[in-house]
Protein backbone atom coordinates (compact mmCIF):
# COMPACT_ATOMS: atom_id res chain seq x y z
CA UNK A 1 0.00 0.00 0.00
CA UNK A 2 1.95 2.93 -1.26
CA UNK A 3 -0.42 5.82 -0.59
CA UNK A 4 -3.92 6.93 -0.07
CA UNK A 5 -4.39 7.47 -3.80
CA UNK A 6 -4.52 3.70 -4.35
CA UNK A 7 -7.63 3.18 -2.27
CA UNK A 8 -9.35 6.54 -1.86
CA UNK A 9 -11.90 6.08 -4.61
CA UNK A 10 -15.67 6.09 -4.42
CA UNK A 11 -17.66 5.08 -7.50
CA UNK A 12 -21.16 6.03 -8.60
CA UNK A 13 -22.88 3.15 -6.83
CA UNK A 14 -21.23 4.22 -3.55
CA UNK A 15 -22.71 7.69 -3.87
CA UNK A 16 -26.11 6.22 -4.76
CA UNK A 17 -26.05 3.98 -1.67
CA UNK A 18 -24.97 6.85 0.54
CA UNK A 19 -27.48 9.29 -0.95
CA UNK A 20 -30.34 6.81 -0.61
CA UNK A 21 -29.80 6.53 3.14
CA UNK A 22 -29.84 10.32 3.47
CA UNK A 23 -33.02 10.66 1.38
CA UNK A 24 -34.84 7.97 3.37
CA UNK A 25 -34.07 9.81 6.61
CA UNK A 26 -35.45 13.04 5.18
CA UNK A 27 -38.51 11.20 3.83
CA UNK A 28 -39.36 9.88 7.29
CA UNK A 29 -39.32 13.44 8.62
CA UNK A 30 -41.56 14.62 5.78
CA UNK A 31 -44.00 11.77 6.46
CA UNK A 32 -44.42 12.67 10.12
CA UNK A 33 -44.71 16.35 9.25
CA UNK A 34 -48.02 15.55 7.54
CA UNK A 35 -49.16 12.45 9.47
CA UNK A 36 -51.37 12.45 12.55
CA UNK A 37 -51.76 15.91 14.04
CA UNK A 38 -49.10 17.33 11.67
CA UNK A 39 -46.85 18.39 14.58
CA UNK A 40 -49.01 21.39 15.49
CA UNK A 41 -48.88 20.95 19.27
CA UNK A 42 -45.93 20.83 21.66
CA UNK A 43 -47.17 17.52 23.06
CA UNK A 44 -46.97 15.88 19.64
CA UNK A 45 -43.83 17.67 18.43
CA UNK A 46 -41.78 17.18 21.61
CA UNK A 47 -43.29 14.01 23.11
CA UNK A 48 -45.00 12.04 20.30
CA UNK A 49 -48.29 12.44 22.20
CA UNK A 50 -46.76 10.18 24.90
CA UNK A 51 -47.88 7.03 23.08
CA UNK A 52 -44.66 5.68 21.57
CA UNK A 53 -43.81 1.97 21.24
CA UNK A 54 -41.13 0.14 23.23
CA UNK A 55 -38.85 -1.28 20.51
CA UNK A 56 -38.40 1.85 18.37
CA UNK A 57 -37.86 4.01 21.46
CA UNK A 58 -35.32 1.53 22.88
CA UNK A 59 -33.38 1.46 19.61
CA UNK A 60 -33.56 5.24 19.44
CA UNK A 61 -32.18 5.55 22.97
CA UNK A 62 -29.37 3.14 22.12
CA UNK A 63 -28.17 4.99 19.01
CA UNK A 64 -28.58 8.39 20.65
CA UNK A 65 -25.43 7.78 22.69
CA UNK A 66 -23.38 6.07 19.97
CA UNK A 67 -22.96 8.34 16.92
CA UNK A 68 -19.75 8.61 14.92
CA UNK A 69 -17.89 8.24 18.21
CA UNK A 70 -18.82 4.56 18.09
CA UNK A 71 -18.02 4.13 14.42
CA UNK A 72 -14.69 5.98 14.48
CA UNK A 73 -13.46 6.93 17.94
CA UNK A 74 -13.86 3.61 19.71
CA UNK A 75 -12.12 1.54 16.99
CA UNK A 76 -9.37 4.19 16.91
CA UNK A 77 -8.95 3.86 20.68
CA UNK A 78 -8.62 0.08 20.37
CA UNK A 79 -6.28 0.33 17.38
CA UNK A 80 -3.89 2.66 19.20
CA UNK A 81 -4.16 1.49 22.81
CA UNK A 82 -5.74 -1.97 22.80
CA UNK A 83 -9.00 -3.49 23.98
CA UNK A 84 -8.80 -2.29 27.60
CA UNK A 85 -11.46 0.36 27.03
CA UNK A 86 -13.98 -2.43 26.47
CA UNK A 87 -14.64 -2.62 30.22
CA UNK A 88 -16.40 0.73 30.00
CA UNK A 89 -19.19 -0.82 27.93
CA UNK A 90 -20.77 -2.72 30.81
CA UNK A 91 -21.50 0.47 32.68
CA UNK A 92 -24.46 1.38 30.46
CA UNK A 93 -26.29 -1.82 31.40
CA UNK A 94 -25.71 -1.11 35.08
CA UNK A 95 -26.82 2.50 34.72
CA UNK A 96 -30.03 1.53 32.93
CA UNK A 97 -30.79 -1.07 35.59
CA UNK A 98 -30.44 1.63 38.24
CA UNK A 99 -32.73 3.77 36.11
CA UNK A 100 -35.41 1.07 36.13
CA UNK A 101 -35.21 0.64 39.89
CA UNK A 102 -35.07 4.29 40.89
CA UNK A 103 -35.35 6.88 38.15
CA UNK A 104 -38.33 5.68 36.07
CA UNK A 105 -40.66 5.30 39.11
CA UNK A 106 -39.78 8.86 40.09
CA UNK A 107 -39.86 10.69 36.75
CA UNK A 108 -42.51 8.89 34.65
CA UNK A 109 -45.53 9.67 36.88
CA UNK A 110 -44.64 13.39 36.77
CA UNK A 111 -45.26 13.51 32.98
CA UNK A 112 -42.56 16.14 32.52
CA UNK A 113 -41.28 17.21 29.11
CA UNK A 114 -38.04 18.73 30.37
CA UNK A 115 -35.96 16.89 32.95
CA UNK A 116 -35.35 20.17 34.74
CA UNK A 117 -39.03 20.68 35.49
CA UNK A 118 -38.37 18.12 38.21
CA UNK A 119 -35.87 20.44 39.90
CA UNK A 120 -38.43 23.22 40.17
CA UNK A 121 -41.03 20.79 41.51
CA UNK A 122 -38.48 19.46 44.00
CA UNK A 123 -37.16 22.77 45.34
CA UNK A 124 -39.92 25.22 44.41
CA UNK A 125 -37.13 27.21 42.73
CA UNK A 126 -37.11 28.39 39.14
CA UNK A 127 -33.47 29.43 39.54
CA UNK A 128 -32.30 25.86 40.19
CA UNK A 129 -34.27 24.71 37.17
CA UNK A 130 -32.74 27.34 34.88
CA UNK A 131 -29.23 26.64 36.18
CA UNK A 132 -29.57 22.92 35.50
CA UNK A 133 -31.05 23.28 32.03
CA UNK A 134 -28.46 25.92 31.04
CA UNK A 135 -25.47 23.78 32.05
CA UNK A 136 -26.96 20.75 30.31
CA UNK A 137 -27.76 22.75 27.19
CA UNK A 138 -24.20 24.04 26.80
CA UNK A 139 -22.83 20.52 27.31
CA UNK A 140 -25.20 19.11 24.70
CA UNK A 141 -24.19 21.70 22.10
CA UNK A 142 -20.49 20.89 22.61
CA UNK A 143 -21.24 17.17 22.35
CA UNK A 144 -23.19 17.64 19.12
CA UNK A 145 -20.28 19.61 17.68
CA UNK A 146 -18.04 16.57 18.19
CA UNK A 147 -20.69 14.31 16.66
CA UNK A 148 -20.67 16.45 13.51
CA UNK A 149 -16.89 16.26 13.35
CA UNK A 150 -16.79 12.44 13.13
CA UNK A 151 -18.09 11.76 9.62
CA UNK A 152 -16.35 14.89 8.34
CA UNK A 153 -12.88 13.50 9.03
CA UNK A 154 -13.92 10.14 7.57
CA UNK A 155 -14.90 11.68 4.26
CA UNK A 156 -11.79 13.84 4.32
CA UNK A 157 -9.68 10.68 4.68
CA UNK A 158 -11.15 8.85 1.71
CA UNK A 159 -12.51 11.48 -0.67
CA UNK A 160 -11.95 15.09 -1.63
CA UNK A 161 -15.18 16.12 0.12
CA UNK A 162 -14.29 19.15 2.31
CA UNK A 163 -14.70 18.89 6.07
CA UNK A 164 -16.81 22.03 6.20
CA UNK A 165 -19.19 20.65 3.56
CA UNK A 166 -19.59 17.35 5.40
CA UNK A 167 -20.35 19.10 8.69
CA UNK A 168 -22.89 21.32 6.98
CA UNK A 169 -24.55 18.38 5.18
CA UNK A 170 -25.08 16.30 8.32
CA UNK A 171 -26.38 19.30 10.25
CA UNK A 172 -28.75 20.36 7.47
CA UNK A 173 -30.28 16.90 7.05
CA UNK A 174 -30.72 16.40 10.78
CA UNK A 175 -32.17 19.87 11.34
CA UNK A 176 -34.61 19.38 8.45
CA UNK A 177 -36.27 16.16 9.55
CA UNK A 178 -36.16 17.04 13.25
CA UNK A 179 -37.73 20.47 12.74
CA UNK A 180 -40.58 19.24 10.54
CA UNK A 181 -41.23 15.78 12.00
CA UNK A 182 -40.64 16.19 15.74
CA UNK A 183 -39.89 13.37 18.17
CA UNK A 184 -41.74 10.76 16.10
CA UNK A 185 -39.51 11.48 13.11
CA UNK A 186 -36.42 11.42 15.32
CA UNK A 187 -37.30 8.02 16.79
CA UNK A 188 -38.27 6.33 13.52
CA UNK A 189 -35.28 7.70 11.62
CA UNK A 190 -33.17 6.41 14.53
CA UNK A 191 -34.63 2.94 13.90
CA UNK A 192 -33.74 3.10 10.20
CA UNK A 193 -30.30 4.50 10.95
CA UNK A 194 -29.70 1.79 13.56
CA UNK A 195 -30.30 -0.85 10.90
CA UNK A 196 -27.92 0.90 8.50
CA UNK A 197 -25.28 1.12 11.23
CA UNK A 198 -25.54 -2.58 12.06
CA UNK A 199 -25.39 -3.65 8.42
CA UNK A 200 -22.34 -1.45 7.88
CA UNK A 201 -20.55 -2.73 10.98
CA UNK A 202 -21.21 -6.40 10.25
CA UNK A 203 -20.05 -5.90 6.66
CA UNK A 204 -16.75 -4.43 7.84
CA UNK A 205 -16.27 -7.14 10.47
CA UNK A 206 -16.98 -10.05 8.11
CA UNK A 207 -14.93 -8.75 5.18
CA UNK A 208 -12.16 -7.43 7.43
CA UNK A 209 -11.79 -10.74 9.27
CA UNK A 210 -11.58 -12.67 6.01
CA UNK A 211 -9.08 -10.23 4.49
CA UNK A 212 -6.90 -10.30 7.63
CA UNK A 213 -6.54 -14.08 7.32
CA UNK A 214 -9.40 -15.40 9.42
CA UNK A 215 -10.32 -15.12 13.08
CA UNK A 216 -7.53 -17.40 14.34
CA UNK A 217 -4.84 -15.41 12.53
CA UNK A 218 -6.45 -12.15 13.61
CA UNK A 219 -6.39 -12.98 17.32
CA UNK A 220 -2.86 -14.36 17.03
CA UNK A 221 -1.64 -11.04 15.64
CA UNK A 222 -3.38 -8.79 18.15
CA UNK A 223 -2.48 -11.11 21.04
CA UNK A 224 1.20 -11.13 20.15
CA UNK A 225 1.24 -7.35 19.89
CA UNK A 226 -0.39 -6.47 23.19
CA UNK A 227 -3.80 -5.41 21.92
CA UNK A 228 -5.77 -7.95 23.98
CA UNK A 229 -4.89 -6.12 27.19
CA UNK A 230 -8.07 -6.91 29.12
CA UNK A 231 -6.65 -7.45 32.58
CA UNK A 232 -4.99 -4.43 34.11
CA UNK A 233 -6.11 -4.22 37.74
CA UNK A 234 -3.48 -1.68 38.75
CA UNK A 235 -5.00 0.60 41.44
CA UNK A 236 -2.69 3.49 40.45
CA UNK A 237 -5.00 6.39 39.45
CA UNK A 238 -2.29 7.86 37.22
CA UNK A 239 -2.32 4.88 34.82
CA UNK A 240 -4.17 5.87 31.63
CA UNK A 241 -6.77 3.07 31.75
CA UNK A 242 -7.31 0.25 34.24
CA UNK A 243 -10.23 -2.02 35.04
CA UNK A 244 -11.09 0.13 38.05
CA UNK A 245 -10.93 3.53 36.39
CA UNK A 246 -12.86 2.39 33.34
CA UNK A 247 -15.63 0.42 35.01
CA UNK A 248 -16.22 2.63 38.04
CA UNK A 249 -15.65 5.89 36.21
CA UNK A 250 -17.88 4.82 33.35
CA UNK A 251 -20.68 3.78 35.70
CA UNK A 252 -20.73 7.32 37.09
CA UNK A 253 -20.64 8.81 33.60
CA UNK A 254 -23.28 6.55 32.04
CA UNK A 255 -25.58 6.99 35.01
CA UNK A 256 -25.49 10.63 33.98
CA UNK A 257 -26.78 9.57 30.56
CA UNK A 258 -29.87 8.11 32.24
CA UNK A 259 -30.29 11.47 34.01
CA UNK A 260 -30.24 13.09 30.57
CA UNK A 261 -32.88 15.07 28.69
CA UNK A 262 -32.85 12.66 25.73
CA UNK A 263 -33.42 9.72 28.07
CA UNK A 264 -36.13 11.47 30.07
CA UNK A 265 -37.87 12.57 26.88
CA UNK A 266 -38.10 8.94 25.79
CA UNK A 267 -39.10 7.68 29.23
CA UNK A 268 -41.88 10.27 29.40
CA UNK A 269 -43.03 9.51 25.84
CA UNK A 270 -44.06 6.01 26.90
CA UNK A 271 -47.72 5.42 27.82
CA UNK A 272 -46.95 3.41 30.97
CA UNK A 273 -44.19 3.03 33.53
CA UNK A 274 -43.83 -0.64 32.62
CA UNK A 275 -43.20 0.29 28.99
CA UNK A 276 -40.58 2.83 30.07
CA UNK A 277 -38.82 0.12 32.11
CA UNK A 278 -38.72 -2.15 29.07
CA UNK A 279 -37.06 0.60 27.04
CA UNK A 280 -34.14 0.88 29.47
CA UNK A 281 -33.80 -2.88 29.98
CA UNK A 282 -33.51 -3.43 26.23
CA UNK A 283 -31.33 -0.43 25.43
CA UNK A 284 -28.57 -1.33 27.93
CA UNK A 285 -27.51 -4.73 26.51
CA UNK A 286 -28.11 -3.50 22.95
CA UNK A 287 -25.72 -0.59 23.52
CA UNK A 288 -23.04 -2.91 24.93
CA UNK A 289 -23.43 -5.25 21.96
CA UNK A 290 -23.08 -2.58 19.27
CA UNK A 291 -20.15 -0.93 21.04
CA UNK A 292 -18.46 -4.35 21.20
CA UNK A 293 -18.83 -4.59 17.43
CA UNK A 294 -17.06 -1.24 17.13
CA UNK A 295 -14.26 -2.46 19.40
CA UNK A 296 -13.85 -5.53 17.22
CA UNK A 297 -13.48 -3.27 14.18
CA UNK A 298 -10.46 -1.71 15.89
CA UNK A 299 -8.95 -5.16 16.49
CA UNK A 300 -9.54 -6.09 12.85
CA UNK A 301 -7.92 -2.86 11.65
CA UNK A 302 -4.80 -3.54 13.71
CA UNK A 303 -4.49 -7.13 12.44
CA UNK A 304 -5.18 -6.07 8.86
CA UNK A 305 -2.53 -3.36 8.68
CA UNK A 306 -0.04 -5.48 10.64
CA UNK A 307 -0.45 -8.32 8.14
CA UNK A 308 0.23 -5.86 5.30
CA UNK A 309 3.29 -4.49 7.10
CA UNK A 310 1.83 -1.01 6.99
CA UNK A 311 0.81 1.33 9.79
CA UNK A 312 -1.05 4.15 8.01
CA UNK A 313 -0.42 6.49 10.93
CA UNK A 314 3.33 5.87 11.02
CA UNK A 315 3.58 6.06 7.23
CA UNK A 316 1.63 9.36 7.20
CA UNK A 317 -1.00 7.95 4.84
CA UNK A 318 -3.49 9.31 7.33
CA UNK A 319 -2.92 12.10 9.81
CA UNK A 320 -5.44 11.17 12.48
CA UNK A 321 -6.21 7.89 14.27
CA UNK A 322 -9.92 8.56 13.76
CA UNK A 323 -9.33 7.95 10.02
CA UNK A 324 -8.08 4.37 10.49
CA UNK A 325 -11.43 2.64 9.91
CA UNK A 326 -12.54 4.54 6.79
CA UNK A 327 -9.01 4.12 5.37
CA UNK A 328 -9.24 0.36 5.89
CA UNK A 329 -12.80 0.16 4.59
CA UNK A 330 -11.99 1.64 1.19
CA UNK A 331 -9.11 -0.80 0.79
CA UNK A 332 -10.95 -3.99 1.73
CA UNK A 333 -14.02 -3.03 -0.32
CA UNK A 334 -12.20 -1.62 -3.37
CA UNK A 335 -13.38 -4.56 -5.51
CA UNK A 336 -16.95 -4.44 -4.16
CA UNK A 337 -18.70 -1.31 -5.49
CA UNK A 338 -21.33 0.07 -3.16
CA UNK A 339 -19.89 -1.32 0.07
CA UNK A 340 -17.78 1.74 0.82
CA UNK A 341 -20.89 3.84 0.26
CA UNK A 342 -22.74 1.61 2.71
CA UNK A 343 -20.06 2.23 5.33
CA UNK A 344 -20.27 5.97 4.81
CA UNK A 345 -24.06 5.73 5.07
CA UNK A 346 -23.72 3.87 8.37
CA UNK A 347 -21.27 6.48 9.63
CA UNK A 348 -23.53 9.37 8.71
CA UNK A 349 -26.53 7.52 10.14
CA UNK A 350 -24.73 7.25 13.45
CA UNK A 351 -24.15 10.99 13.54
CA UNK A 352 -27.64 11.88 12.33
CA UNK A 353 -29.30 9.80 15.05
CA UNK A 354 -27.36 11.46 17.85
CA UNK A 355 -27.61 14.95 16.41
CA UNK A 356 -31.37 14.77 15.89
CA UNK A 357 -31.93 13.47 19.42
CA UNK A 358 -29.78 16.24 20.84
CA UNK A 359 -31.61 18.90 18.85
CA UNK A 360 -34.97 17.53 20.00
CA UNK A 361 -33.85 17.62 23.63
CA UNK A 362 -32.53 21.18 23.34
CA UNK A 363 -35.79 22.27 21.75
CA UNK A 364 -37.74 20.68 24.61
CA UNK A 365 -35.57 22.39 27.22
CA UNK A 366 -35.92 25.81 25.61
CA UNK A 367 -39.67 25.42 25.17
CA UNK A 368 -40.51 24.07 28.62
CA UNK A 369 -37.89 25.81 30.76
CA UNK A 370 -37.78 29.24 29.14
CA UNK A 371 -40.56 29.97 26.63
CA UNK A 372 -43.68 28.59 28.34
CA UNK A 373 -42.98 30.01 31.84
CA UNK A 374 -41.95 33.41 30.43
CA UNK A 375 -44.50 33.97 27.65
CA UNK A 376 -47.67 32.55 29.15
CA UNK A 377 -49.96 34.39 26.72
CA UNK A 378 -48.59 32.54 23.68
CA UNK A 379 -50.82 29.87 22.17
CA UNK A 380 -49.58 26.29 21.95
CA UNK A 381 -49.45 26.55 18.16
CA UNK A 382 -47.10 29.55 18.34
CA UNK A 383 -44.93 27.86 20.95
CA UNK A 384 -44.66 24.83 18.68
CA UNK A 385 -43.44 27.08 15.86
CA UNK A 386 -40.80 28.52 18.20
CA UNK A 387 -39.75 24.98 19.16
CA UNK A 388 -39.29 24.10 15.49
CA UNK A 389 -37.28 27.25 14.78
CA UNK A 390 -35.08 26.58 17.81
CA UNK A 391 -33.98 23.31 16.19
CA UNK A 392 -32.45 25.38 13.37
CA UNK A 393 -30.69 27.73 15.80
CA UNK A 394 -29.25 24.92 17.91
CA UNK A 395 -28.11 23.14 14.74
CA UNK A 396 -26.18 26.23 13.70
CA UNK A 397 -24.59 26.43 17.16
CA UNK A 398 -23.43 22.80 16.90
CA UNK A 399 -21.91 23.54 13.49
CA UNK A 400 -19.99 26.44 15.03
CA UNK A 401 -18.58 24.18 17.75
CA UNK A 402 -17.61 21.57 15.18
CA UNK A 403 -15.62 24.12 13.19
CA UNK A 404 -13.77 24.98 16.41
CA UNK A 405 -12.55 21.42 17.00
CA UNK A 406 -11.44 20.35 13.51
CA UNK A 407 -7.79 20.27 14.59
CA UNK A 408 -8.25 17.57 17.25
CA UNK A 409 -5.78 14.75 16.57
CA UNK A 410 -6.38 12.19 19.32
CA UNK A 411 -9.15 9.57 19.40
CA UNK A 412 -12.45 11.45 19.64
CA UNK A 413 -13.66 8.92 22.22
CA UNK A 414 -11.28 10.40 24.78
CA UNK A 415 -12.27 13.98 23.93
CA UNK A 416 -15.97 13.20 24.04
CA UNK A 417 -15.90 11.39 27.36
CA UNK A 418 -13.87 14.22 28.89
CA UNK A 419 -16.44 16.81 27.80
CA UNK A 420 -19.37 14.63 28.80
CA UNK A 421 -17.89 14.04 32.24
CA UNK A 422 -17.32 17.76 32.80
CA UNK A 423 -20.98 18.57 32.21
CA UNK A 424 -22.77 15.41 33.32
CA UNK A 425 -20.92 14.84 36.61
CA UNK A 426 -22.31 17.87 38.49
CA UNK A 427 -25.78 17.38 37.01
CA UNK A 428 -25.78 13.69 37.90
CA UNK A 429 -24.74 14.54 41.45
CA UNK A 430 -27.51 17.12 41.64
CA UNK A 431 -30.15 14.67 40.43
CA UNK A 432 -28.98 11.87 42.71
CA UNK A 433 -28.90 14.14 45.72
CA UNK A 434 -32.30 15.61 44.90
CA UNK A 435 -33.97 12.26 44.32
CA UNK A 436 -32.59 10.21 47.20
CA UNK A 437 -32.02 12.67 50.02
CA UNK A 438 -35.37 14.02 51.25
CA UNK A 439 -33.67 16.68 53.37
CA UNK A 440 -31.76 18.13 50.41
CA UNK A 441 -32.29 21.88 50.14
CA UNK A 442 -31.82 24.49 47.43
CA UNK A 443 -29.05 26.17 49.44
CA UNK A 444 -26.96 23.00 49.74
CA UNK A 445 -27.30 22.17 46.03
CA UNK A 446 -26.22 25.61 44.85
CA UNK A 447 -23.15 25.44 47.09
What is the general shape? globular
Report on the biggest sheet: none
Whole-number tally of structural domains: 1
How big a fraction of the residues is strand? Answer: under 5%
Brief overview, please?
Helix content is about 75%, strand content about 0%. The protein is built from 17 helices and no strands.
Summary keywords:
transmembrane helix; Sodium:Solute_Symporter_SSF; Na/solute_symporter; transmembrane; 447 residues; Na/Glc_symporter_sf
Task: Give an overview of the whole structure.
It is a single chain. This protein is mainly α and 447 residues long. It has a single domain (12-436), classed as Sodium/glucose cotransporter (Up-down Bundle). It contains 17 helices and no strands. The longest helix is centred in the middle third of the chain and has 49 residues, at 163-211. The mean pLDDT is 86.
Topology summary:
Elements lengths: L11 H23 L7 H6 L6 H11 L2 H15 L8 H18 L9 H7 L2 H33 L4 H49 L3 H10 L18 H16 L2 H9 L3 H35 L16 H9 L6 H36 L5 H25 L7 H25 L5 H5 L1
Helix pairs in contact: 1-8, 1-14, 3-8, 3-12, 4-7, 4-12, 4-14, 4-16, 5-10, 5-12, 6-7, 7-8, 7-13, 7-14, 7-15, 7-16, 8-12, 8-14, 8-15, 9-12, 10-16, 11-12, 14-15
